[in-house]
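Protocol step 4 of 6: structure prediction from sequence.
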Amino acid sequence: MRMKMALVLAAALSLPVAALAQMQVLDAPGGAAEPAAEETSPAPCGTTEITIAEMGWPSAAILANIHATLLRAEYECVVRLVPGEPEATLSSMATTQQPAVAPELWVSRQAEVWNGAMQARSARAAAPAFSGGPLEAWFVPSYVIDNNRGLAGASDIMDHWRVFVPEGDTRAKLYSCPADWACAIINKNMAAGLGLNERFDIVEPLDRFAMDGALTDAVSQRRPVLTYYWQPNALIDRLDLVPLDMGGFDAGNAQCMAIRDCVPFGGSGFAPDAVVIAVAEWVFSDTPDIADYFAQASMPLSEMNRLLAWQAENEASPDAVAQHFLITGRDVWQGWVADGGDADAASPDAAQ
């Protein structure tokens, strides 16, 4: 609206004086002219409050604040953030259709409740929460890819196994996760399924701090390293890690990989995890423009990794990260609001 008004004023001011003099205003019956009523279209949300669940982990909290900021600035919505916890939030959406939105819901981990909510037509997925990459994979630093162009996927590792042999050693290393994590079993069996056992030792760090420390130390010295990791995660951006193509998902092999003493007959990628923007059904029927916004609002994993790294470096709040994203992630969020709102209106000042 501000942009449209500015264009009207600019056009008027550009007219010659003579042209302005010829403009006539008709008197309203019975006296002075009445100003013309400005035609306004109702806001996409009307007076309906949009509640967004702000979960307790960093990426989910950032997404909640980003969506709240954009809905206020671009669609003039009344938005309220509410504390969220996955199971309780999903149960509430299934029974009361509140909150209206859960921006990062790992529904495959609450499959029974999620399926019930969809069957009851209380909530459904507007879009995947993230786009542009795997949630779990084996990663290598970007300089390893640059120096080994044939290394693109897990199936290529045996052709490049010598790259991952530490100096003075004869066997390569695959860095897994701590032994008491489920991914430790999966990584060990996945390596066996790919035939890596004859060349690789599996390294299981003591805990998350040891895991991150070993990776950071290796990258700081530009040593080749092959590691399991997951995203979104700040470390992916900070260390410039690149996921390998883990190949197609094979349900039989993947099921075997999750069992400690099972050796799969072949390889498989990690089991897919459904992470969605969960939206209450009434949003689709009552505020279709807002439903359309969320249908386009998948966050690229690389962008979220960047935001998480920026948050860690600056010790920033989720709201501060959202404001940072409005400035630096414009090429991302403009696509979300392409069919509604004024892209120039979403500035840090407008979002307050």
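Step 5 (inspection) to follow. The chain has 15 helices and twelve strands.
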